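Hello again, I could really use a second opinion on something today. I've dropped the whole record in just underneath, so have a look.
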Amino acid sequence: MTKLRNEFPKSEWKHCCGKGCKKCAIHNAYLDAYGKKVGEKKFAKDHDKMH
């Protein structure tokens, strides 16, 4: 589990499609914090846990 997962409320995670849209604040936060390669993996893992 990453720290970013807890920074966003469940309501935001519910509306996130998980495809990595450019407008998605959650996805962009992961990319900014971890870079593209690692950020994508961590985002996908946390997205699965929150849905």
